[in-house]
Specification:
This protein is an alpha/beta fold. The chain folds into 3 domains: about 160 residues, no CATH class; about 80 residues, no CATH class; about 45 residues. It is about 50% helix and about 10% strand. The protein contains 14 helices and 5 strands. A 5-stranded mixed β-sheet has the order 1-2-3-4-5. The radius of gyration is 26 Å and the shape is elongated. About 10% of the residues have low confidence.
Length: about 325
């Protein structure tokens, strides 16, 4: 019998890796990421992707999932490795990656050859704190006085050590994805999504949400009859107005979590289309009959914002 739970975990990890990879392929995200966590200021125009599928003469191979950037006109490289679980072999893997890169760049046999400068980063989205060593640990007992070797040390970004508030304050797609991934329960995730929706999304965050929708089967399966709307958004035919509805439906809390300030006009249009003209007439009649707002909301499931809009329309019709 197939272990569906195990299969789902593997599939979820693969989808998570794909989402993070797509965001890590954005030069704007990378330059901001390096500046935010390590205070190294580089510019989009100064970096380029480096082929990460090279194979060295001694057989090591950097996996395709690795992200490598090169600063143009230099021999400076940034390796970024995403890990959704703690990997205690990471010091050895990083050392191999660095040797692979050095070997691939050593085209000259001159004694004046200089090895490239490599800045390895591990981005951990593990649900537990990353406790793997940052470099290879050597045997120190009875070393006969031999000096210790200096192995590569990777630079760690652990989402468990960064607050959700700080990640959300950053207003970038990558840090938004990190904030969502950091949440351990549905309730925690709901609070973050509600906050983002009410605050509104900028271009970076919108791109992140679209990538998540495009690559997360869990969210796609939860959309139900909204799949066609989702397809339009992914193709670029739609706008951000449907994001609130899609996420709130996913969390089984339709229409009562507030409306994004940043895209309020588009969301208002989306909600208006979702309420039939017949229901609007009934709600307007309720308003004319001076029913209390809480009763109208109870029986029609309309949002407070949409009810306010219809009340204004009723007032205008009286004046006309």
């Amino acid at each position: 019998m197939t272990d569906n739970t195990a299969e789902n975990k593997v599939k979820g990890k693969q989808e998570q890796d794909k989402i993070l990879r797509k965001l890590l392929e954005d030069k704007r995200e990378i330059t901001h990421f390096v500046d935010k966590f390590f205070r190294y200021k580089i510019f989009v125009k100064d970096i380029e992707r480096y082929n990460g599928k090279f194979v060295t003469s001694f057989g090591f191979k950097v996996r395709e999932s690795d992200i490598i950037y090169k600063i143009k006109s230099t021999e400076i490289y940034i390796i970024i490795e995403h890990q959704s679980t703690v990997d205690y072999k990471m010091p050895k893997r990083i050392s191999e990656y660095c040797i692979c890169l050095i070997d691939s760049r050593q085209t000259s046999k001159s004694k004046f050859y200089k090895a490239p400068l490599i800045f390895p980063i591990v981005l951990s989205t593990s649900k537990t704190i990353w406790d793997a060593p940052l470099t290879i640990i050597q045997e120190e007992d009875n070393n006969y006085g031999f000096p210790a070797l200096k192995y590569p040390t990777y630079n760690l970004v652990d989402i468990q050590k960064v607050s959700t508030e700080e990640l959300l304050k950053d207003r970038m797609g990558l840090t938004l994805a990190m904030a969502l991934e950091k949440q351990k329960t549905k309730e925690e995730l709901e609070k973050v999504i509600e906050f983002v929706i009410k605050r509104g999304v900028n271009e970076n965050e919108a791109n992140c949400l679209k990538i998540i929708l495009e690559n997360s089967s869990k969210i796609r399966n939860a959309l139900g009859d909204k799949k066609e709307e989702y397809k339009k958004i992914i193709k670029g035919d739609g706008d951000m107005s449907n994001f609130e509805e899609l996420y709130i439906e996913l969390l089984e809390d339709k229409y009562n979590k507030g409306v994004s300030q940043g895209v309020s006009q588009g969301i208002s249009q989306g909600i208006s289309q979702g309420i039939s003209q017949g229901i609007e007439k009934i709600i307007k009649q309720m308003i004319k009959n001076k029913m209390e707002d809480k009763e109208i909301i109870k029986y029609t499931n309309i949002s407070k914002k949409e009810l306010k809009r219809l009340k204004l329309e009723v007032e205008k019709s009286k004046i006309a």
